[in-house]
Design brief:
By secondary structure, this protein is of the alpha+beta class. Helix content is about 30%, strand content about 30%. α1 packs across α5 (about 85-110), α2 crosses α3 (about 35-55) and α3 (about 35-55) crosses α5. The longest helix is centred in the N-terminal third of the chain and has 26 residues, at about 85-110. The N and C termini lie far apart (about 90 Å).
Length: about 325
């Protein structure tokens, strides 16, 4: 029989995995796998679940008909008309195993989502760049993971899944939105823009550098975020907060330094503390609202503090290895 005449079903795949497939079925599966990357991806997903669930041994005394009956009842399928000893009965026994395999696969997909994507990349260093086929560039923080599709002709979507933190420069395509699925649920959808996603155990934040994105942490209608806006979703109370970003310095892991554009000094101090991992206390609270502008820099902290001293008449003192105090000062130059 020509391999083109055999329909590759779950039962045929189960027969292959259990070593019971005929030569014709084996040839058909091989032909089917080579027909498209999607078929090959699906085959690997089934093979992975089969491997994790253990090989089926026909010599084991398992009531496969009872198991299959339970699966049929849950799926709402009619009872089959079968007799033991014929080819149909044998295939149905394999199909029972296949049904369990298919249910396991669906649970596996719903649980991790990994099988929706056939490629993955994990950053082994900070700010590692990955280039996607559509021209999009994704920078990942060390340890973060990106899952995506192998390019296929006719694919009508651009979709990835992010675990951890990533900065995206999305190639513009108004006809095909770019979609980021998030680790803990929710999505970010864009046409073409630059934005950052940060995911922690407490929630998810999305910071837009340019363009527009729609951050949907749960099902529902959410507003569009525009440039210099930040949205923070709290898992604790399922609350979404949107505000203007006082600075873009949470991108310092990507840009390599700090930059300030009319940023309140209170926020400047906060960013310096986070970037340099120190504690800085500014005694004069009247300076909190002073607006500070400085180009991108990763200079030593002492040099940055010296600039603030000159600009605002401050005096800085180092009280311990990781602690500084700023005194005096005035708002204005």
């Amino acid at each position: 029989m020509n391999q083109n005449q055999i329909n590759v079903t779950e039962a045929v795949l189960a027969a292959c995995f259990s070593g019971k497939a005929s030569p014709e079925e084996q040839a058909a599966v091989k032909f089917w796998r080579q027909a498209s990357p999607a078929n090959e991806s699906q085959f690997r997903a089934y093979a992975l679940v089969w491997e994790r669930s253990g090989s089926f041994d026909p010599s084991l005394h398992i009531d496969m008909e009872a198991a299959y009956s339970r699966v049929r009842q849950k799926a709402g399928l009619p009872a089959p008309l079968l007799r033991a000893g014929n080819r149909i009965y044998y295939l149905t026994r394999i199909a029972a195993v296949s049904a369990v395999l298919l249910v396991s696969l669906l649970l596996f997909r719903n649980g991790t989502g990994d099988t929706d994507f056939d490629q993955s990349a994990t950053a082994t260093v900070e700010n590692q760049a990955f280039h996607l086929a559509d021209g999009t560039v994704v920078w990942l923080r060390n340890g973060s993971k990106l899952m995506y599709h192998t390019p296929e002709g006719g694919r009508s979507q651009r979709k990835v899944r992010l675990s951890g933190d990533g900065y995206f420069e999305v190639a513009h395509n108004p006809d095909v939105p770019f979609r980021v699925e998030l680790d803990g649920g929710g999505t970010v959808e864009v046409l073409g823009t630059e934005f950052n996603i940060s995911q922690t155990d407490s929630g998810t934040s999305v910071l837009v550098k340019s363009g527009k994105v729609r951050f949907s942490p749960t099902k529902g209608d959410y507003p569009v975020l525009t440039a210099s806006q930040k949205a923070v979703f709290s898992k604790k109370d399922s609350r979404l907060t949107i505000k203007g970003a006082a600075s873009m310095n949470e991108l310092s892991w990507h840009t390599g330094g700090l930059e300030f554009v009319s940023t309140p000094l209170s926020k400047v101090i906060e960013d310096l503390e986070q970037f340099y991992q120190v504690k800085i206390t500014m005694k004069n609270s009247e300076l909190n609202t002073c607006l500070h502008t400085a180009p991108l820099t990763n200079s030593p902290l002492e040099e940055v503090l010296r600039v603030l001293e000159v600009a605002y008449g401050l005096q800085s003192s180092k009280v311990s290895d990781n602690e500084y105090v700023l005194t005096g000062g005035y708002c204005g130059r």
